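Hi U.,

Before I forget, here's the chain from the pilot set. I'm dumping it here mostly so it's searchable later in email.
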Amino acid sequence: MLAGLVAGAGFADQPGQPLSAQEAFALPQPEPDEVIAYGSEARQFGELRMPEGDGPFGVAVIVHGGCWLAAYDQGYMAAFAEAVTDLGWATWTIGYRRVGEPGGGWPNTFLDAAAAVDFLPDLARRHPLDVDRVVAIGHSAGGQLALWLAARPRLAESSPLFSPDPQPIDGVVALAAAADLEYLSEQKTCGDAATLLMEGTPIERPRRYAQGSTMRLVPLGVPQILVNGELDETWSVPAERYFTAASNAGDAVEKVTMPGAGHFELVIPDSPTWSVVRDALVRLGDAIDAD
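Structure:
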């Protein structure tokens, strides 16, 4: 069913035309095994999917995109999460407060993502999870948050985003990542979403960008794989800029291009070249296991 709908949306019938946001959001959204609250706010929940078997299973924290805006939620990542679960990872797709809803934006968007990850040891008391093997996978704005989750142990105690004992992230797959907040604010990308997230420009809020922008927090000290669609010009630039910064800082970071893809094919398991993302996750798991 999914394959047929995706082909109709543009993979087979309109070669060279990237999948639109509307088409991606209209695709089937498989239900999770459980929806579990990690806090008391409406958006403080995660969708848990468990592989078959006894475990314990490594955990892939999945972070949705949508320019950090309240108009977009985690639903379009459901089939992606299911496909990652089929690879043997427990998946924890997190909700978080977004710009345009009560409490969204600085600092709570970051704090919610952190709290969702720090909830994993609690989940592991009820489910066979290996919290010593945790990766973050994020798409678009979620790619920025996934990288930030790996970076947050570098934050100073004086930061409002500081956690005394953050759950370690062992590696990151960042898909079309909005990884350069300064550049996105300057370009006013996605309705100036980065400026809205930080409640100001880098000139107006330099301390916030120093704590929330992964460009300012490299090296992360964990393996990272950045994947971008060949046709996704808007989001390839911030990812390229982050790749350069992380590489220059000495991080183990890899950059991969999905041929013929736009922004959303990266999270659609039946896209013709989705194996690029699947193989990136397999390589990341291998790199973590080799440490």
